[in-house]
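Renewal narrative, Specific Aim 1. Our central claim is that a sequence can be written position by position from structural information alone. The example that follows is taken directly from our test logs and has not been curated for this report. It begins with the structure tokens describing the chain, in the order in which they were read.
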């Protein structure tokens, strides 16, 4: 069975865009592949060397993924820093990662620009640690978006270089992977592009948002002054609301408001009210699971321990093999 690895940033709550995109893919993958989903808490040190609430962030991510349906029995869900084998592989790979190629990484250049006072070696070698995450389980599939494509290419470079150097074929090549259903568009509420945290909290509906918060955000979503001609094309901000409705409402509801729009009889307040209620209903099961799981520390501990155990088993085999290949042998 092929192996999937995905690292999850340890900051931030899940929003509807994450839920209907990445998470739905994860739910399918956990039934079909040998999946490792981990929280990339080591990576977070590259930009936040003295994190204040590392443990809370890790907990929140775990809780939300479990609530969304990731099954710790099917997939291996673990915390990166629990599996220190990755650090050893990172060191080996660092010996064959060149300054020039690391400096050329787009993510590095972006971070240098954003934070010129903290250009540390860990930031430079971020892609090496990411390669170590993937190669640690000899994964072939990595469910990440376009922004991570260059990191995956570097992962293949480092793995192939290792293979060439030590004359073997130990590491397979990993490629980006999705089911194509992340074509489902989840726009934000700001009348512009995708739902995304970087556009601000008002733009996102989070899975953990209470019904009142959802209603408030949706009622404040950007609209225009209304259609003036029958059957006119919808401007982006209105199309966005219909796209969201498409995801959380019944097709009858969508049709109803579409007809009103086309007849120039739509009242955006009514549409938003309906959209908010349907969002509340659509997210309710996950939201109540989040609250339930967050209150159950014993369960969270159990999940984290189980994940660490399964991930370590896979990682220890790789490290044993790699040591052997490099030539560290027991006397
Ligand atoms: N760099 C990824 C991101 O920013 C997170 C990540 C770290 C990752 N290690 C990984 C993703 C390994 C996939 C596989 O989203």
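The sequence written for that structure reads:
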């Amino acid at each position: 069975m092929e192996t999937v690895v995905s690292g999850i940033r340890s900051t931030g709550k899940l929003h509807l865009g994450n839920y209907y995109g990445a998470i739905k893919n994860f739910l399918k993958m956990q039934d079909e592949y040998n999946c490792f989903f981990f929280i990339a808490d080591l990576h977070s040190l590259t930009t936040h060397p003295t994190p204040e609430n590392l443990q809370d962030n890790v907990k929140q991510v775990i809780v939300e993924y479990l609530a969304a349906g990731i099954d710790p029995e099917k997939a291996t869900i673990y915390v990166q820093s629990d599996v220190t084998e990755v650090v050893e592989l990172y060191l080996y790979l660092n010996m064959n990662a060149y300054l020039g190629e690391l400096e050329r990484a787009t993510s590095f250049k972006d971070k240098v620009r954003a934070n010129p006072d903290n250009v540390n070696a860990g930031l430079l070698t971020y892609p090496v640690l990411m390669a170590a995450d993937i190669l640690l389980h000899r994964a072939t599939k990595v469910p990440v978006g376009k922004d991570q494509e260059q990191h995956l290419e570097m992962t293949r470079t480092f793995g192939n270089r290792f293979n060439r150097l030590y004359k073997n074929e130990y590491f397979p090549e990993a490629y980006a992977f999705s089911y194509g259903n992340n074509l489902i568009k989840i726009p934000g509420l700001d009348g512009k592009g995708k739902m995304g945290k970087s556009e601000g909290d008002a733009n996102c509906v989070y899975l953990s948002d209470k019904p009142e918060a959802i209603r408030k955000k949706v009622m404040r979503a950007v609209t225009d002054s209304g259609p003036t001609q029958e059957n006119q094309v919808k401007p982006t901000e209105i199309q966005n609301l219909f796209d969201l409705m498409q995801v959380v409402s019944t097709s009858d509801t969508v049709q109803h408001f579409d007809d009103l729009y086309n007849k120039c009889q739509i009242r955006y307040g009514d549409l938003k009210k309906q959209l908010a209620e349907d969002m509340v209903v659509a997210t309710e099961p996950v939201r109540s699971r989040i609250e339930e799981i967050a209150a159950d520390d014993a369960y969270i501990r159990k999940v984290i321990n189980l994940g660490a155990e399964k991930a370590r088993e896979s990682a220890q085999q790789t490290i044993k093999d790699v040591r052997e290949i490099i030539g560290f042998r027991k006397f």
